[in-house]
Amino acid sequence: DGSPPASQRPTAYIMVLINQEVKTKAFEHDVGMAVENIILTALEEGVGSCCFGSVDRGKLRKRFNIPKKYLINLVIALGYPNESPVEEPFENSVKYWKDKKGLLHVPKRKLKDILHRNVITSEHTSAV
């Protein structure tokens, strides 16, 4: 089912909740900045992280008795990494894979393909 064995599961989770009664129009920016700081601080301490947006919000709401006024935005899993993934050039798929030795390969786009300086050229306007 894709779940790691108990010995390899995250040691902590952070659930990012949005109070819908006071959220701003740009709350996504606030969430992004806060989550980035959590991830970078964890990394500095040797703790890995993974953000999940595809979670069973109903189950989480019930399990943790979360009032309806809170939107469950993200879940951040934290733990100590036990593998060292290898970055691979992106070739039409972001699907990760493991090789015969069990090494995790992660496709990534090149910075020149996602960063633009002063202008976006026509080569960057086609759909990926």
Describe the structure.
- It is a single chain.
- The chain is α+β, with helices and mostly antiparallel strands and 128 residues long.
- The chain folds into 2 domains: 11-81, NADH Oxidase (3-Layer(aba) Sandwich), CATH 3.40.109; 83-128, putative fmn-dependent nitroreductase like fold (Single Sheet).
- 23% of the residues lie in helices and 27% in strands.
- It contains 3 helices and 6 strands.
- It has a 3-stranded antiparallel β-sheet with strand order 1-3-2, with helices on both faces. It has a 3-stranded mixed β-sheet with strand order 4-6-5, with no helix packed on it.
- The longest helix has 18 residues, at 27-44.
- The radius of gyration is 18 Å and the shape is globular.
- The chain starts with 11 loop residues before the first strand and ends in a 14-residue tail after the last helix.
The portion of residues forming beta strands comes to 25-35%
How many strand segments?
A: 6
- CATH top-level class of the largest domain: Alpha Beta
Give the helix tally: 3
Rg, Å, rounded? 18 Å
